[in-house]
Design goal:
With about 325 residues, the protein is an alpha/beta fold. The chain has 8 helices and 9 strands. Helix content is about 30%, strand content about 20%. Helix 4 (about 160-175) packs across helix 6. InterPro entries: AB_hydrolase_fold, Hydrolase_4, MAG_DAG_Lipase.
């Protein structure tokens, strides 16, 4: 049942969720889910966090850090992800990244209605790609005060030939056969580096964020390809943007301890090259020893990330 008020959340009594109904799409009924850390006092400042691919919001520590610095914390599980994934849907499926704009519109409308006039949009990986496109043309983009991008997905991490030949061909096919699944399985090594049942330190719901990544469709490839094309052309955003990423990319083909101290998903050179094309007020910071999701890096590294982030926010938003 669609809810218009907050209900208990899977993360425990400090968190609550609100279902955001959306119009049905090509797979049937759709909704997204807004999660918030229960406020402990008044604040006109808020942050909205948007997760990456094969992901959902579970980072309690991150929410608490924002709250400690005076931000009411919200997170959005996009349609077909995590709390919002429904049995009739292919997980994480999308045909155009604009499909997510309605989810962000609804979340930002709630945040604004709850009394916030300074809003940081914080996003990881694929969520970063969605968020910068939203900041350019989303209906409620005027609510946003700044962007923080944690290892944003600005380009495919592929060999040159695949990136310039196979990828455009796949995107073209995606227009006519969007539900065609990509054969083969994506590597499990990054997922193994995170979950405590494997090699990592984190606990989360594996059916929503499996170690063996959900299969992707050609329609998803087309959607990402079009988003990346727009980034390459330049977005011209005027709001302040902080981009943080690891200082290097994992080079190993199989398991390596480097997954604990480098980006095991994206090529950090792509992030470094493309980030300045997002707008005129972009700050880029490389994090020594950072993992792909910087907020899931080993504790000393993520402490550096939080220090850098909140120092930037203090200087940028006051």
């Amino acid at each position: 049942m669609m809810s218009t008020s907050y209900q208990p959340d899977v993360l425990g009594p400090d968190f609550e969720q609100r279902v955001l109904p959306q119009p049905a799409d090509y797979e049937g009924p759709v909704h997204s889910t807004l999660v918030r850390l229960r406020p402990t006092g008044p604040s006109a400042r808020a942050v909205l966090y948007v997760h990456g691919f094969n992901d959902y919001f579970f980072q309690r520590e991150m929410a608490q850090r924002y709250q400690q610095h005076g931000y009411h914390f919200y997170a959005l599980d996009l349609r077909k992800y995590g709390r919002s994934w429904q049995p009739h849907q292919h997980p994480n499926n999308v045909r155009h990244l604009r499909e997510y704009f309605a989810d962000l519109d609804a979340a930002l409308a709630v945040i604004k209605a709850e009394g916030h006039d300074t809003v940081l949009l914080s996003a990881h990986s694929t969520g970063g790609l969605v968020s910068v496109l939203y900041a350019q043309e989303g209906e409620n983009r005027g609510v946003l005060s700044a962007l923080f991008l944690n290892s944003p997905f600005l380009a495919m991490h592929l060999p040159r030939a695949a990136k310039h030949l196979a990828l455009p061909m796949a995107a073209a096919v995606g227009r006519f056969a969007p539900n065609l699944k990509i054969p083969g399985n994506l590597a499990t090594t990054y997922g193994e580096s995170l979950h405590r049942q494997h090699r990592g330190e984190w606990e989360y719901h594996l059916p929503w964020k499996p170690v063996a990544v959900f299969p992707i469709t050609i329609g998803w490839v087309r959607a990402i390809y079009e988003g990346h094309r727009r980034v390459r052309e330049g977005l011209g955003l005027r709001l302040p943007i902080l981009v943080m990423h690891s200082d290097r990319t994992v080079q190993a083909r199989g398991w390596s301890e480097d997954y604990f101290r480098a980006d095991g998903v994206l090529n950090v050179r792509d992030i470094r090259t493309l980030a300045p094309r997002l707008g005129s007020r972009v700050t880029v910071r490389a994090v020594a020893g950072g993992m792909h999701d910087l907020m899931l890096s080993p504790q000393p590294v993520r402490e550096m990330v939080y220090q850098e982030l909140f120092a930037w926010l203090s200087a940028t938003l006051g």
